[in-house]
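Subgroup meeting minutes
Present: P.N., E.W., G.H.
Scribe: E.W.

1. P.N. recapped why we're keeping a running log of single-chain structure predictions: easier to compare across weeks, and new members can see raw inputs and outputs side by side.
2. G.H. added today's entry (367 aa).
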Amino acid sequence: MDTSDPNITFDDSGVCEYCRNFDEQIQPSWDTGKKGAAELDRLAAEIRKAGAGKEFDCIIGLSGGLDSSYATYIAKERMGLRPLLVHVDAGWNTDQAVGNIEKLVDGLGLQLFTEVINWQEMKDLQTAFLRSQIADQDIPQDVAFFSGLYKFARKHRIKYVLTGANYSTECCREPEEWGAYPGIDKRLINAIHHRFGKRELKTFPIVDILVYKIWYQQVMGMKIVRPLNLVPYIKAEAEAELAKLFGWQRFQHKHHESRFTRFYEDYWMPRKFGFEKRRAHFSSLIMTGQLSRDAALDRISRPEMDSHFITQEFEFVANKLDMTVDELQTIFEGENKTFHDYPNKRWAIGIGARIMRALGMEKRLFR
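Output recorded in log:
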């Protein structure tokens, strides 16, 4: 991490607060040994008991990426659960992601439900966000993925939602200036869509973060379980294990299961805004001992995609969104803005985040 994070601070030894937070908050309470195994067994027994007599005892959102794929494997093979796999298709799946999903479903003998987002509405919302000029360009996809999953779980009265969220590859959370808006803010989404959108979002799923945190979890009793924090989870070893067992194929980098996210994080963000999300991704691996700092700096000195591939992807994104290449280029060259330029309720989300950290429910540095 460097000063492209505008609020980063370093102590007299040159250590930043991300590393201090890992040493002081995350590592002391993170156990993947006997204590973690015991907690995983306890959770598995609790979930199996609650799901007795039902077709499924939990639900997992499966993208085809490493984290959700390995969480699925742990849920079935280690925890002995009967998960229903739900894939929310927002229109940007890579062939590799689709192949990985099929291999896991077949190899583990699980059932998959695919929720297909209305493409015309998805396209309209994504185009509106691009025209808004803010850095947070993955909000439309994230909203579709998480809202679709939560709504499905609530509709079918499935209490336990297992996720691939973890400390091992995600202990360094990107600052919100880098397009990491902290949650689904319905006010921000509606404000941007009202200004730049052209089509009514009749079916597009939006579950506001406050509804999700308060109504779904506190009132309706939905439980979020993160099994990867309770087992040894080393990125390279997990990739090799899934490849050996199921023929699962590793991605070049995190989030490459989505063609839009790959384009956004590897091209749009660093070239338009000057932010490299790979810094946070690699920092997580460095702090957890999976990557050396020198190797990370060497890799980040080069783009993930070559210029020819970038040109093809730029054209692909423009065409898929019904834009000309010149129209997308004009947006790319436009004046950068932030979510502060639009109505939002970041203040309320911030209060919630501070409460969660105070209660020990969130260990990562959240800002």
